[in-house]
Amino acid sequence: MERENRKINVDIERKWVRITISHGKDEEIIKLSLNEATHLKEQLNSTIEDYLQRQNIRID
Asked: Residue 50 sits in which domain range?
């Protein structure tokens, strides 16, 4: 995924899921266990679904 100067890479590293987030000259690496990565995936899916539903709600 790439946005302006931001780049996100996801790789598998033995028993870990490695997420590298680069923004300009800065870089952050996060290593998650498979259980943590699965939990993150579920949270992201839930949050995105909630966001999409909220977009459809019109408040007058």
From this structure: 6-57
Residue 24 lies in a domain: yes
Q: How many Cβ atoms sit within 10 Å of the Cβ of residue 21?
A: 15
Note if the pTM is more than 0.85.
no
Domain assignment present for residue 53? The answer is yes
Q: Which two tokens stand for residue 14?
A: 């033995």
Q: For the chain, what is the domain count?
A: 1
And the tokens for 8?
């996100």
Q: What is the pLDDT of residues 10-47, one digit of tens each?
A: 999 999 999 999 998 899 999 999 999 999 999 999 99
47 alpha-carbon distance from chain centroid: 11
Q: Is residue 1, in this structure, part of any structural domain at all?
A: no
Evaluated on CA atoms 47, 52, 56, 60, the torsion sign reads: positive
